[in-house]
Design goal:
- By secondary structure, this protein is an alpha/beta fold.
- The protein has four domains: about 160 residues, Distorted Sandwich (Calcium-transporting ATPase, cytoplasmic transduction domain A); about 260 residues, Calcium-transporting ATPase, transmembrane domain, CATH 1.20.1110.10; about 160 residues, HAD superfamily/HAD-like (Rossmann fold, 3-Layer(aba) Sandwich); about 160 residues, Calcium-transporting ATPase, cytoplasmic domain N.
- Helix content is about 50%, strand content about 15%.
- The protein contains 33 helices and 25 strands.
- Strands 8-25-24-23-9-20-22-21 form an eight-stranded mixed β-sheet, with helices on both faces. Strands 10, 13, 14, 15, 16, 17, 18 and 19 form an eight-stranded mixed β-sheet that branches.
- A hairpin with a 2-residue loop joins strand 16 and strand 17.
- The chain is elongated.
C-alpha cells in the first residue's frame, strides 16, 4: 500500500502471499495500520458559512455599481434614492440565497453511503467493526445484502454478484470471481476480481484483502474530484458581469464627457459634477438585478410543476444556453428496468415450458403485487405473468435447488409435479446446450441435432446484436427427488428456448432527442454499460447519426486531450467510462465554446455533474451524492424533462434579454435627452427626481412583465446562441436607435413645451411635457420589445401581465400629473388641452416606428 499497485492485474496466488487469510491482522498490525493510514472515512471539504454565502450574492459587477450609486446618492442628500437602490440590491441577494438553500452536500452524502459496520477477520477470529475502523490488509467478509466498506481484492467467491451501478453506471449486478485476472487497461466495471466501497452485494458470498480505505478508494477519488472542482459562474452570471462592466465604462465615460463639456461652458464645477453623476446613474438599469432574479424565481416554480427541481436560480438560464447534453443511459434514457423483449421457441409446447421455466426458476418474489429481487429475474417473472400458461398452472412448489454459480453460469430449481418432480434450468446458452441431449419439437421430446443447435445459435447471435441479454432455458422430468446442490440434475436436459431482455428506452426519449436536434443541441450518451449495449440503445432512440462513432473508456485513455478535442464532436456514445473520462469529455466540448448539461444518478456521475455548466441528477434512483453535486434534480428521472427544462430556460433567457433591451433602450433615451441638452447648454429637460421615478418605478413593472412573456413560436427550432455576451451587435444597434427615438421624442416635447417652437410656454411646462412623453412612450415601447423580428400586433393582447403593468404605471403617472400635492413634489406644471394633444401624439409614435423598422427588416436579427 506504500506504492500504487494494480491489484486487479495480480493473480490469486500473488494476492494470497500478502496476508494470512485465516488469521487476518494482529493487534500490533492494527495499531501500525491505523497510525499509517488513518480511519476509513472521507475528508470533508471546507464549507461556506451563511455569511460567506450571503456576501457571495454581492460579487457581481452590476450589484457593485448599484452600491456605488446608492452611496453617492446618500452623500448628495438623495437619501430616498439610496434607500430604494439598497432595497433592490438586498432583495436580490435574499431571493438568491433562499433559492440556493443549504450548502453543497456532496461529500456529506458520500460519507452517508459508507457502510455503518463490516465483518473482518482479526487475530483468527471473525468480528464486526465500524466501517470507519476497517484498515488496509484487513480480511473483509462479504455476504448478500452487505454494503462493501472498502476496496478489496477478492480472495474467495461463491456465486458472488455485486451491484456497482452507482460507481460504473452498469444496470445489472456484476459476477465476481477471485480467480479472474484483469488486464492493466481494464475499466472499473470489468475488474471482476475486485469489490469497491459503496457497492452492494446482491447474491452469494466471499471475502477479500482490503487494498484501499478512505480517500484511497474509488469513492475517495470521486470525493477528491468533487472537493477540488471549483464552482464556475453560469453563462447568465458571466453575461451580467460583462454587461455591468460595459455599463460601468459607459457611465464613467459619460461623467468625463459631461464634466469636460461643462468646464468648456464655464459652468460651476460642482454643479457639473452632480449633473454628470445623475447622468451616470441614469445609464445603469437599477431594477435589472431584481427583475432578472424574480423572472428566474418564477421560472423555477414553472419548472417544478414539470418535475424539474432547480437548486440554484441562475441555473435556469444556463439550461436555455445549453448546446450539448451529456446523458447517462440507465434510468434516464432507459427505464432502469430489465424487460423481456423477445423469445425463441420451436412451437407452442416449447413456449409453455419456457413460460413455466421463467416463472419457476427464479428467486424473485411478489411484494404488494410488485415483483422484487434481481432485475433479470423480476423481468422473467413479469413476462411469465403476461403469458397464458395452461400447462403447469400458476406455480409449483419448490422442493430443492442448485443455486446459481458464476463458474457454472447455471441455476436449477426442482418442483413437485404430482407424484413426480420436474427440474428447470436457466443460464448461458453454451452452458445449457452443453448439458442438453434433447429438444422439445411439436410437443415431442427428440434428440437434439446439429441443425437444431445451429438454428438456436443463429437466434442467439441475432438477439445479441440487438444488445439483448440472452438466457437459455431447459427442463428435465425426474422420477426421484434430488437433494439441494446435486449437480447431476443439470445433465440430460431438454432444451426449450431463449429469452432476450434489455433495459428498454423510455417511450418519450425519441421525441425529446428529435427536438434537441431541431434545436441545434448535441445529445451524447455516456454510460458504464458495454459498447454493444450502449450503441444499440443509441441507434434505437435516434441518437446515432451517420458519421457519429462509439468510444470506450479504454480507447479514451489512449487519447490525448488534444486528440479528444479534435474528435469529440464526432462521438455520439461513450461506453465503459470512469468519472475522470466524463470530466475530460465535458472539458473537450467546453473548449469548443459549448455550454454543457450533464445528467446522471450515481456516485460516479457526481464530479461531472458538478463540473458541467448545468448538472441534472435523478430524483428517484439518484444517489444523494449526485443530487448534492447537481444544479437540477429530475423528479421523474426522465430525459424528456431535461428537454422541457431547456425549452423553459430558452424562454427565460429570451425574456431576460427582452427586459434588458427594454431597460437599456429607455435609459439610452434618458441619456440622449440629457446629453443633447448639456451639449447645447440648455436648462435640464429632466430633474433628478424625474429620472429616479422612471428608472425605479415606471420601468420595473413592464420589465418584469416582459420577463414572463409567452414563448415565441418555434423557440425550440432556433439554434442556440453560443455568445456569452448579452449585448451582441444586432441588439446593441436596436437599443441605440430605439433609445435615440425615445430621446428625440422627449427633446421635441421639451422644446415644444418651453415655447421654442413658436408656441407659448416655459421651462417648467417643457420639463412636464418631457417627463410625461418619456414615461408614457416607454410604456408604449414595451410592446415593441416582445419580438425583435415579428410584428406584435397579432399577439398584442397575449401578455396580460404587460397590459396590467402598463395600466398600473399609467395610473401612477396620472397620480403624479394630476394630484396637486404630488405634482408640486415633482415640480411639474399643469398642462392644457393643446399640450396634452401633442403629448398623446408623441407617446404613441414608438409603436408604428418600430413596426415599420421590422417590416423593412431594419430592426436587427
Amino acid at each position: 500500500m506504500n506504492k500504487p499497485r494494480l491489484w486487479h492485474t495480480e493473480s490469486l496466488e500473488e494476492a494470497l502471499q500478502i496476508t494470512d487469510v485465516t488469521k487476518g491482522l494482529s493487534d500490533e498490525e492494527i495499531v501500525q495500520s491505523k497510525a499509517l493510514y488513518g480511519l476509513n472515512q472521507l475528508e470533508e471539504g471546507k464549507k461556506k458559512s451563511f455569511f460567506q454565502r450571503f456576501i457571495d450574492q454581492f460579487k457581481d459587477t452590476m450589484i457593485i455599481i448599484l452600491l456605488v450609486a446608492a452611496t453617492i446618492s446618500f452623500f448628495l442628500g438623495e437619501s430616498v434614492d439610496s434607500i430604494i437602490i439598497l432595497t433592490i440590491v438586498v432583495l436580490n441577494a435574499v431571493l438568491g440565497l433562499v433559492q440556493e438553500g443549504k450548502a453543497e452536500q456532496a461529500l456529506e452524502a458520500l460519507k452517508a453511503m459508507s457502510a455503518p459496520s463490516a465483518k473482518v477477520i482479526r487475530n483468527s477470529v471473525e468480528c464486526t467493526v465500524l466501517a470507519k475502523e476497517v484498515l488496509p490488509f484487513d480480511i473483509l467478509i462479504l455476504e448478500a445484502g452487505d454494503l462493501v466498506a472498502a476496496d478489496i481484492r477478492l480472495l474467495k467467491t461463491a456465486s458472488l454478484q455485486i451491484q456497482e451501478a452507482s460507481l460504473t453506471g452498469e444496470s445489472v449486478p456484476v459476477d465476481k470471481s477471485a480467480d479472474w485476472i484483469s488486464e492493466e487497461e481494464s475499466s472499473l466495471g470489468d475488474r471482476r476480481n475486485m469489490a469497491y466501497a459503496s457497492s452492494m452485494v446482491t447474491y452469494g458470498r466471499g471475502y477479500g484483502l482490503v487494498v484501499g480505505t478512505g480517500m484511497n478508494t474509488e469513492v475517495g477519488k470521486i470525493a477528491h474530484l468533487l472537493s477540488s472542482s471549483e464552482q464556475e459562474d453560469t453563462p447568465l452570471q458571466i453575461s451580467l458581469n460583462k454587461l455591468g462592466k460595459t455599463l460601468g465604462y459607459a457611465a464613467l465615460g459619460a461623467v468625463i464627457v459631461i464634466f469636460i463639456i461643462g468646464l468648456l461652458y464655464q459652468r460651476d464645477p460642482l454643479d457639473m459634477f452632480l449633473t454628470a453623476v445623475s447622468l451616470a446613474v441614469a445609464i445603469i438599469p437599477e431594477s435589472l438585478p431584481a427583475v432578472a432574479t424574480i423572472v428566474l424565481a418564477m421560472g423555477v416554480q414553472r419548472l417544478a410543476k414539470r418535475k424539474a427541481i432547480i437548486r440554484k436560480l441562475s441555473s435556469v438560464e444556463t439550461l436555455g444556453s445549453a448546446t450539448v447534453i451529456c446523458s447517462d443511459k440507465t434510468g434516464t434514457l432507459t427505464q432502469n428496468k430489465m424487460t423481456v423483449k423477445e423469445h425463441y421457441t420451436l412451437d407452442e409446447a416449447s413456449k409453455n415450458q419456457l413460460v413455466s421455466g421463467s416463472r419457476l426458476c427464479t428467486d424473485a418474489r411478489k411484494l404488494n403485487d410488485v415483483w422484487v429481487g434481481d432485475p433479470t429475474e423480476t423481468a422473467l417473472s413479469e413476462w411469465a405473468d403476461l403469458k397464458d400458461n395452461q400447462t403447469l398452472g400458476q406455480s409449483l412448489k419448490r422442493v430443492a435447488e442448485v443455486p446459481f454459480d458464476s463458474g457454472r453460469k447455471l441455476m436449477t430449481t426442482i418442483h413437485e409435479l404430482g407424484s413426480k418432480w420436474i427440474a428447470y434450468t436457466k443460464g448461458g446458452l453454451d452452458e445449457v446446450l452443453n448439458q442438453s441431449t434433447h429438444i422439445l419439437k411439436e410437443g415431442k421430446v427428440v434428440k437434439i441435432g446439429d441443425e437444431d443447435i445451429k438454428r438456436i445459435q443463429i437466434e442467439n447471435t441475432r438477439m445479441s446484436k440487438k444488445a439483448l441479454r440472452v438466457l437459455a432455458f431447459a427442463y428435465r422430468p425426474l422420477n426421484e427427488l434430488v437433494k439441494d446442490g446435486d449437480l447431476s440434475v443439470e445433465s440430460q436436459l431438454i432444451f426449450v428456448g431463449l429469452i432476450g431482455m434489455m433495459d428498454p428506452p423510455r417511450e418519450e426519449v425519441k421525441v425529446a432527442i428529435a427536438t434537441c436536434k431541431k434545436a441545434g443541441i448535441h445529445v451524447v450518451m455516456i454510460t458504464g454499460d458495454h459498447k454493444l449495449t450502449a450503441e444499440a440503445i443509441g441507434q434505437e432512440i435516434g441518437l446515432m447519426e451517420e458519421g457519429l462513432g462509439v468510444l470506450t473508456g479504454v480507447e479514451l485513455d489512449r487519447m490525448s486531450d488534444d486528440e479528444l478535442y479534435d474528435q469529440v464532436e464526432g462521438i455520439g456514445v461513450y461506453a465503459r467510462v470512469s468519472p475522470t473520462h466524463k470530466l475530460r469529455i465535458i472539458e473537450a466540448w467546453r473548449k469548443h465554446g459549448d455550454i454543457v448539461a450533464m445528467t446522471g444518478d450515481g456516485v460516479n456521475d457526481a464530479p461531472a455533474l458538478k463540473k458541467a455548466d448545468i448538472g441534472a441528477s435523478m430524483g428517484i434512483v439518484g444517489t444523494e451524492v449526485a443530487k448534492g453535486a447537481s444544479d437540477m434534480i429530475l423528479a421523474d428521472d426522465n430525459f424528456a424533462t431535461v428537454v422541457h427544462a431547456v425549452e423553459e430556460g430558452r424562454r427565460i433567457k429570451a425574456n431576460i434579454l427582452k427586459a434588458i433591451s427594454y431597460l437599456l433602450s429607455c435609459n439610452v433615451g434618458e441619456l440622449f435627452t440629457l446629453l443633447i441638452a448639456t451639449l447645447l447648454n440648455w436648462a435640464a429637460p429632466l430633474l433628478p427626481i424625474h429620472i429616479l421615478w422612471i428608472n425605479l418605478v415606471t420601468d420595473s413593472l413592464p420589465a418584469l412583465a416582459l420577463g414572463i412573456d409567452p414563448a415565441e413560436p418555434k423557440l425550440m427550432e432556433q439554434k442556440p446562441n453560443r455568445d456569452l455576451g448579452l449585448l451582441n451587435k444586432s441588439m446593441l444597434l436596436r437599443i441605440l436607435y430605439q433609445g435615440i427615438m425615445i430621446g428625440g421624442l422627449t427633446i421635441f416635447a421639451f422644446m415644444y413645451g418651453s415655447g421654442w417652437l413658436g408656441e407659448a410656454g416655459d421651462i417648467k411646462t417643457g420639463q412636464t411635457m418631457a417627463f410625461t412623453v418619456l414615461a408614457f412612450s416607454q410604456l408604449v415601447h414595451s410592446f415593441n420589445i416582445r419580438s425583435a423580428k415579428h410584428s406584435v400586433l397579432p399577439r398584442l393582447f397575449e401578455n396580460r401581465s404587460l397590459w396590467l403593468a402598463v395600466i398600473i404605471n399609467g395610473l401612477m403617472m396620472a397620480a403624479v400629473l394630476f394630484v396637486p400635492a404630488l405634482r408640486d413634489l415633482f415640480k411639474l406644471a399643469e398642462l392644457d388641452l393643446h399640450h396634452w394633444e401633442i403629448v398623446a401624439m408623441l407617446v404613441f409614435l414608438p409603436l408604428p416606428i418600430v413596426e415599420l423598422m421590422k417590416l423593412f427588416k431594419l430592426n436587427g436579427k
